[in-house]
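ugh finaly. both done.
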Amino acid sequence: MSVELNRKGLEMKEFIKFDPLYEVIKNTTLEDQLLSEEYLDNLEAKRWYSTPEVAEWFGINDGQLRYYIKPFHEYLFTEETPSSSTAYRLNIESILKLRMILLLKDEYRVKGLQKLVGLREGYVQKKEDKTSTADIDIRIDLENQVEALSNMMQQILKTGLFEMKQGEDGPEITLHDKYLSDQVKQITGENEAVSEMQKIVEDFAKDKEEMQIQLNKARKEDIVIRMKERRIERQVTSELTAEALEKWAGENKHGIFAKLFQGDQIEVEKEKSIQAYIQTNLDERLYNAMAKYHEFEVEDI
């Protein structure tokens, strides 16, 4: 090779040293390009990579990459590869093999590369005229369109509305009369069920509306009751305060000098006496007042 391989390049070489395509590019500038590309530094031996990741490293799009995977599926993958017909996963060995295919695609035809890797028998002939990227894109687009049409046709047939029969000029798609008749009957039955369901929903809506009216009415009545109860509580408290003041005045006679020099202390004692009187009598008086308001019998406390 024209340049000394770096350590990563030597590691990559171990994966393909017996590969038939590597025998073609060995000791050429293509070998330098293959084993010295930057993406190799990021590859891990036990990882699997998606086609969009690999396509980006190769400087092409995912569709172009898949175009070259399809004819070399047996060469690129083993039974242990976690891939399907639509989702490919590639390890280091598969990536290197695919890169060699792309490096040699302008020198050999696809069929020639298939012969080199043992997928076809016969003499390997180098390609005389190169296929342009535009030609590849056209073929990829046509393949994608055919695949999309095929998938669409499969979906149409799965509905059961159509069936495929052999006609004079080949396969023909015709309307499935029995299926259509069954669907009409089913729809008719479903419409009756829907009508019944709609009636149930409407009845439920009416019941719900009536319940909401009753609930709102009950809430209004509850608010009125609570307002009256608070008013009764304030009235009872006011009455007890007046009684406490009267009691205090009767029990405590202070002369003018006492009021003059001990006024603050007297007010504090008066306030304590009033609060004590209210606390002692509030529960019983409030209970009696509420009982009278709600009109139920009051038992002795």
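ok and the 2nd:
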Amino acid sequence: MKLLKSFFSDLSNLEKTLLVILGVLVTCMFCFGAVRLMQVSLFNIGESVQSNNPVPTQKTRPNYRQMLEANSFVYSMNDGDGDPIYVSPCGCVATVKPDYIGFGVYVTDDNCPIEDLGAIVTVMYPSGVFDFIISNMNSAVVQDILVQGTAAGYKISMDFDRTDFVLTIIVYEPR
């Protein structure tokens, strides 16, 4: 303490003023650096929280009407809920619901409706959906079991009605 007092007593007024100004500048720079460091840290924390909790994006559904009509499906009518129903030249039926598209195929000796179904599924969905349907169609029709699974992010359900000989396939929208 004595050393500090003797140091200051030996300085002139101009030197003391310069020393005080220098001290104020160093203190300001230190405070500015600390504030800037906190801003950067808070910004990075905000970014990491934002990347861990992304804002869900609105998923746009494909234009199923355009896809179906481009593949010779013709609008038939709306179902009881007001959802459109389209029919292919061979009798494959497609019902467009808000969460899925359902297909009904009347199973006969001629494979025309199944071919229409295959043609439209390959246009509308990734190849994994088509592969799942083809590989599980036999189980649904011959073994008469409900087949459910997922492919390429789509949930798929297949069922066969032995009374009407109708194979129903529902492809749910990915969430």
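summary for the 2nd one i guess: DSSP finds five helices and seven strands in the chain.
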